[in-house]
Design goal:
Strand content: 5-15%
Order of helices and strands: HHHHEEHEHEEH
Distance between the termini: 93 Å
Shape: elongated
Radius of gyration: 32 Å
Oligomer: single chain
Number of helices: 7
Structural class: alpha+beta
Number of domains: 2
Largest sheet: 5 strands, mixed
CATH topology of the largest domain: Beta-Lactamase
CATH class of the largest domain: Alpha Beta
């Protein structure tokens, strides 16, 4: 009794063709019965070389797209880094506390290509040494925790600016970056807020290393001007 023949799997066929690399050259008639990618030349004849070329073109196009995206990302990061470095230098050049605040609230928006930069400080029963300083917004106690929780930053896209953060300019803001300011244990909690009319300027997927560094510089400058320690 003849044993039943086992059906070949796709893996069996692939393994066989890898071993018999000259199979189609030795048996070209098989090509007439194949449904394969590529252009056909005559009845059932497939141009495998053309199919391979088309695949290589597609792979090259995809690789070129990835390369272009990487270059654009690198340029954007370099541009942001240059902006942050310039902003830090300008902040450090302030000769008075008033000029320091003015630099952050009026000069930084231009330097960083955002629409508004706000300093929000919690008003508490403690004496606030810069209570009368123009350019600083005040908020109720617990404001920082409400927005940031226990985190150091909040970046959001496609939002409507909040008046408690951005004041009269809130209507312009469609994305924002809020960073915690920890000046000292003897001064109230605060936030430095960057707002943009571009809904995609800030987003939760973005890294905060550069803008976080700027916030740290602002904290240290506050300590120097207010003569406080951590």
């Amino acid at each position: 009794m003849t044993a039943a023949k086992k059906d070949l799997s796709e893996e069996d066929v692939i393994a066989f063709l890898k071993k018999k690399k000259n199979f189609f050259r030795d048996h070209p008639e098989v090509l007439e019965h194949l449904d394969a990618p590529g252009q056909k030349h005559g009845k059932g004849v497939v141009d495998f070389q053309q199919a391979l070329v088309e695949r290589l073109k597609a792979d090259k196009s995809a690789a070129h797209k990835v390369q272009k995206e990487l270059i654009e990302t690198f340029r954007a990061n370099m541009n942001n880094q240059n902006r942050i470095q310039t902003a830090v230098l300008v902040i450090l050049e302030a000769e008075t506390f008033e000029e320091f605040i003015e630099t952050m609230t009026q000069d930084l928006p231009v330097l960083l290509d955002v629409d508004t930069v706000n300093l929000v400080i919690e008003a508490t029963s403690k004496e606030v040494p810069f209570i009368n300083q123009s350019g600083i917004r005040f908020a109720r106690q617990g404001f920082v925790k409400q927005w940031l929780g226990t985190g150091d930053a909040l970046l959001q896209s496609n939002i409507n600016g909040h008046e408690d953060v951005f004041g009269p300019g809130a209507g312009l803001v469609k994305s924002h970056a809020l960073l915690r300011l920890e000046i000292s244990p003897n001064t109230p909690a605060g936030i430095i807020a960057f707002g943009s009319r571009d809904p995609e300027a800030f987003g939760p997927e973005q890294a905060i290393d550069q803008i976080g560094f700027l916030a740290q510089v602002v904290e240290r400058c506050f300590r120097i001007w207010l003569d406080v320690t951590v």
